[in-house]
Structure formats: structure tokens, C-alpha cells
Design goal:
- With about 500 residues, this protein is α+β, with helices and mostly antiparallel strands.
- It has a domain of about 240 residues.
- Helix content is about 30%, strand content about 10%.
- Helix 14 packs parallel to helix 16 and helix 15 packs antiparallel against helix 16.
- The chain starts with a helix and ends in a 10-residue tail after the last strand.
- The C terminus is likely disordered.
- Bound molecules: cobalamin and iron/sulfur cluster (2 copies).
Length: about 500
């Protein structure tokens, strides 16, 4: 027999207190029939690309109550944590977050968008003031956040989220275990990107949000810039109803995708996705997709930044840079980028203040954007520097951050492509050095591609480009004849 609403509410309240933005509960002892059929089609089409691990463990993806996840599981508690610049409301319950959103107060979100001209967020996003939504997202980076920051997907600008989220799901699992007794123990398994399950499909089942045409789990009122975690448990809890799909006639995400990576609405083909190409793909980026990569160095947010459900999350002022971080003190950190280092910049410094104590760390974690605030280190490194990092420098730069996943050579390859797309000839010396001397063939090849692009631009000009700086110090190229250069086509 399922326990009453009361127990589920206690679990929900505990999860919200831990800092999660939304909570939903689904039965764990059932098949994900439709979703596993979609997954099968995905694998059959070879859409996993080089992510071979994605084609394995079908049974675990189909249901949670087998041996692979948690034998005898009855419920799955699905959790979302926002990483957008979403200022969390102080009293979550008043926003109805975590409750059945269909019973939410009228916040302009959650109404049936098909009955509105404005996709359900109150205003036609196309007529909105310029919040950065709807601009060509390839024309990054965002100003004032450092050379690398704008090219890094938002979820990855801070420290690696796994450590932080894992702590949250573990605490919730521990709480669930306390609800058992000697006669009737409760087992609970916390999950956060560490088991082969279809997280979005379960989250949709749990009514945490709905899957948008961009494939993202969208939590109305919070958006899709959320990370997901789960606790699978033998405790039988009252469940939440799935939400209705709310995209209506909107297709902004499909239209905004720079590489046309959507095979159909809701179906992403990762092999064309910039996120896959810059993070997971280990080989050369297919040449036909390089230009469309634009200035995305690691990951891509384009199909999310245009989504009206994210307007609130991304219209806020950027989160402040995180000034001190333990992660900065990785091996080989000091000196590696010190004065005289590759870029001759002041260098990435050792933390000036001592590592934060436990209380400070916890406070930061509970802050709405703390763990996701862009790291200061990104502002100390130029793209050109990424072409020539040695292992020690790479460790120092990437340790404790999501960028580690791309690997040193993967990020160097990406940097070469971004430099090629930037069309800034000042990158030529660094690119030439990489094209001739980098030990990794994919980096040499990407650098040669970028050089060819810059050279082509150059040879197309009768009058050479000269460098100029405007009043703000921003550098630009112009022809010596005074004409402006062609915009980056
Ligand atoms: C592999 C992977 C990737 C790959 C492949 C993504 C893909 N679409 O398959 C790549 C590298 C491209 C990627 C990119 C990103 N990822 Co990713 N990724 C994963 C991972 C590890 C597995 C996904 C998977 O199983 N794919 C296989 C396909 C078949 O499953 P699926 O994508 O989940 O799709 C299911 C549902 O969407 C649904 N569905 C499909 N079609 C339809 C149609 C309808 C009508 C409906 C209702 C449902 C529906 O069925 C599918 C099967 O169940 C998950 C974590 C996890 N374990 O789930 C994170 C995860 C999906 N990624 C995440 C994030 C944040 C991202 C990026 C935003 C990162 C970035 N900024 O660069 C992008 C977003 C790209 C996008 N638009 O999806 C988050 C998503 C959070 C959210 N709000 O949805 C997850 C859940 C990680 C986490 N723990 O938070 N990712
Ligand atoms: S993450 Fe970027 S490339 Fe991938 S589907 Fe979304 S918009 Fe397209
Ligand atoms: S942008 Fe995409 S995911 Fe967002 S509402 Fe429109 S169709 Fe749905």
C-alpha cells in the first residue's frame, strides 16, 4: 500500500530544504515503455556516435527495480537543481514548485500555451526587450566574463556540479532510510549521472517538468537550465502525475540550433550537436559542422537560451565571479601560468585567501547560483593558450571543473576551431605553432583548418587589414583604406 500524501510531502519538503528547486515522485516498479522504444530507435540509428557506453545497459534504462539499480524499488524521487541565473524564490512552496504544477497559482507559466499567442510565458518573446534571448547565440562571448567564459555552456562555468549534487541526493537517501524500521527497513540509492538511467524520461514521469521539443526537461517557473538527480527507494510513496506538453506551436529551439541537430522535434541527433562535438567526441569535428560551432568552446546552450521558459532564468544579471576556490590549488597550479607563462598575462594565481571553511562552503552551496558562478580562472586564459598547454597546466586549469571531460587535446581542438571562426588574424602565430608542433593530430589538423580560413580571408582582401582599438580598448581589424572589414559571415 502506498504511504499517504503526508509522507511524500515530508520527503518533498526535505528535498527542497536541501536546495533542490523542484521535486517529483514516480513509481519505480514499471517499464518506461514509450521511452525505451525511443531509446532503442536512438541506438539503432547509431545516434550515440562515439558514446559507446550510451548503447549499453538497456535493462537498467528500461526499469529501476532490477538488480542493476535497486532490486525491489518502489518509488523514484526526481530532483532538479537550477543553474541558470534564476534567483530562487525564498518560499518555494508559494510558487508551487514541487507540487502538481497544474494546480499552481497563475504566474503566467503553466497555462496551456496553445490557447495563448505567447507560448505560455506571458509575453511574445519576439517582442521582448533585448535580454540576449533571440540573438544569434553564435555571436558569443558574453561581455565582462572573461575570454573563455562565454564559450563555455552555463552548466559548466563553475565547479563540477557532480560533487555538489551528489551530496544533496545522498542526504535525501539518508533521510529516506531513517523512515524505515528494524522490521521494515527502507533502502535508498542516490543517483547523479552515475548510473545508466534515462533521467529525463523518469523526471517527466514524476511530473517534475515536461520534455520540450529541444529534448530538455523543462520545469515551468524554473526553466530547463536545471540538472537532474534521483533517489530510488523501496519506500512506496504517493506519486505525482506527469505534466502535459507545453511547447504549443513554438519551434524556436529547433530554428536556433546552429548545426540543425534535431532529426525531428524532441529528437536530438547528438552526432550533429555542438555539445557532443565539443565534449564527448574524441575525433576531428566534421568539417561541415565547424563553422556552425561558432564560438562554442565547451557545450552549447543555444536551444535553451531562446526558449521562452528560460526567459526568467537568463534575464538576470550574470552571477558574480567566484573569487576563491579550493580547486585552484591543483598540482602545478602556481607558476604554470605565472608571469612569463604562455600568454604573458598576470597569470592564474594561487588563491589569496585560505580555503573556505565548511560553514562557508555549505552557505555557498545553498546560495542560488554559488556552485555555478563562473570561475575566475576562465578570465585569466586566452583561447590561444589552450593550444599549447602541457599536462600540468591542463590539470591546473581543468581540475574540479566540467571541462576536464573534454580532455586537453579536445579543448585545444575546440579552441582552434573557435579561433578560426573568430577570424582574428592575431591568433595566427599560436595557430601556426599548434599546426606544426602539437603532438595530437586532431589539434594540428584543426589549427591548419583555422589558418586556412584566416589566410583565405586575407588573400580575398586587396588592402591589408590593420589592427585598431576603439575607445573601450576593444580590438578590431579594419582595412587600411578605412573601410570596415566584412562581418564574420
Ligand atoms: C548522453 C547525454 C548527452 C549527449 C546526448 C544527448 C541526447 N539527447 O541524447 C550530449 C553530449 C549531446 C548531451 C548534451 C547536453 N546535455 Co546531456 N546528457 C546525456 C546523458 C548522460 C544521457 C542521455 C541519454 O540517455 N540519451 C539517450 C536519449 C534516447 O535519451 P534522452 O536524451 O534522455 O531522451 C529521452 C526523453 O527526452 C524522451 N523523449 C524523446 N523524444 C520524445 C518525444 C516526446 C513527445 C516526449 C514527451 C519525450 C521524448 O525519450 C528519450 C528516451 O527516454 C544524460 C544523463 C542521463 N543519464 O539521462 C545527460 C543530460 C540529459 N544532459 C544534460 C544537459 C544539461 C545537457 C546540455 C544542456 C549540456 C550543454 N549545455 O551543452 C546539452 C543539451 C542538449 C539537448 N538539447 O539535449 C542534463 C539535462 C537536464 C535537463 N533539464 O533536461 C542531463 C539529464 C544530465 C543531468 N543529470 O542533469 N548530453
Ligand atoms: S545544444 Fe546546441 S547544437 Fe546541440 S541541439 Fe542544442 S542548439 Fe543544437
Ligand atoms: S523553444 Fe523549444 S522547448 Fe522551448 S517552448 Fe519553444 S519549442 Fe518548446
Amino acid at each position: 500500500m502506498p504511504h499517504g500524501e503526508g509522507l511524500a510531502e515530508r520527503v518533498r519538503a526535505f528535498a527542497l530544504k536541501l536546495g533542490f528547486d523542484a521535486v517529483g515522485i514516480a513509481r519505480a516498479d514499471r517499464d518506461l515503455e514509450q521511452d525505451i522504444a525511443r531509446y532503442d530507435a536512438f541506438v539503432e540509428a547509431g545516434m550515440q556516435g562515439e558514446m559507446g557506453w550510451l548503447a549499453k545497459h538497456r535493462d537498467a534504462r528500461a526499469r529501476l527495480d532490477g538488480d542493476q539499480i535497486l532490486a525491489g524499488a518502489k518509488s523514484v524521487i526526481c530532483l532538479a537543481r537550477s543553474y541558470g541565473n534564476h534567483a530562487r524564490a525564498p518560499v518555494v512552496a508559494d510558487l508551487g514548485v514541487g507540487r502538481d504544477p497544474r494546480h499552481k497559482p497563475d504566474l503566467g507559466v503553466g497555462r496551456d500555451p496553445r490557447h495563448k499567442p505567447d507560448l505560455g510565458v506571458g509575453r511574445d518573446p519576439r517582442h521582448k526587450p533585448d535580454l540576449g534571448v533571440g540573438r544569434d547565440p553564435r555571436h558569443k562571448p558574453e561581455s565582462g566574463e572573461g575570454e573563455l567564459t562565454g564559450g563555455i555552456a552555463r552548466y559548466a562555468r563553475g565547479r563540477d556540479y557532480h560533487r555538489f549534487l551528489r551530496r544533496g541526493v545522498r542526504r535525501l537517501a539518508a533521510f529516506l532510510r531513517t523512515l524505515g524500521s528494524a522490521d521494515c527497513p527502507v533502502r535508498a540509492r542516490p543517483l547523479c549521472d552515475d548510473a545508466p538511467i534515462l533521467e529525463r524520461a523518469w523526471a517527466a514521469q514524476a511530473g517534475l517538468g515536461f520534455v520540450g521539443k529541444n529534448g530538455m526537461l523543462i520545469v515551468p517557473g524554473v526553466g530547463s537550465m536545471v540538472l537532474l538527480g534521483e533517489v530510488v527507494t523501496t519506500l512506496e510513496l504517493a506519486t505525482d502525475a506527469p505534466m502535459t506538453q507545453r511547447c504549443g506551436a513554438c519551434t524556436r529551439c529547433l530554428d536556433a540550433c546552429p548545426t540543425s541537430a534535431f532529426a525531428a522535434p524532441f529528437v536530438l541527433d547528438p552526432r550533429r550537436c555542438v555539445s557532443y562535438l565539443t565534449i564527448e567526441h574524441r575525433s576531428a569535428v566534421p568539417e561541415g559542422l565547424r563553422e556552425a560551432m561558432g564560438e562554442n568552446l565547451f557545450g552549447c546552450d543555444d536551444c535553451q537560451t531562446v526558449c521562452p521558459f528560460n526567459a526568467a532564468a537568463i534575464s538576470r544579471a550574470p552571477a558574480p565571479l567566484e573569487r576563491s576556490s579550493n580547486a585552484l590549488s591543483g598540482p602545478g597550479w602556481g607558476g604554470v601560468f605565472g608571469a612569463g607563462a604562455p600568454n604573458d598575462k598576470p597569470g592564474i594565481e594561487r588563491p589569496r585567501s585560505p580555503p573556505p571553511d565548511r560553514a562557508t562552503r555549505v552557505k555557498r552551496e545553498l546560495d542560488a547560483t554559488g556552485p555555478f558562478a563562473p570561475l575566475e580562472r576562465w578570465s585569466r586564459v586566452r583561447l590561444e593558450d589552450l593550444l599549447a598547454l602541457d599536462e600540468g597546466q591542463w590539470r591546473a586549469l581543468s581540475e574540479g571543473t566540467p571541462l576536464k571531460r573534454a580532455g586537453r587535446c579536445g579543448l585545444a581542438r575546440n579552441a582552434a576551431i573557435v579561433l578560426g571562426n573568430r577570424r582574428d588574424r592575431r591568433a595566427l602565430p599560436a595557430l601556426r605553432q599548434a599546426a606544426n608542433g602539437h603532438e595530437e593530430p586532431i589539434v594540428r589538423e584543426a589549427a591548419a583548418w583555422a589558418i586556412a580560413r584566416l589566410e583565405k580571408d586575407h588573400s580575398a582582401c586587396a588592402v591589408p587589414f590593420v589592427e585598431a582599438a576603439d575607445a573601450t580598448g576593444a580590438r578590431s581589424l579594419s582595412r587600411s583604406g578605412g573601410r570596415t572589414p566584412p562581418s564574420d559571415e
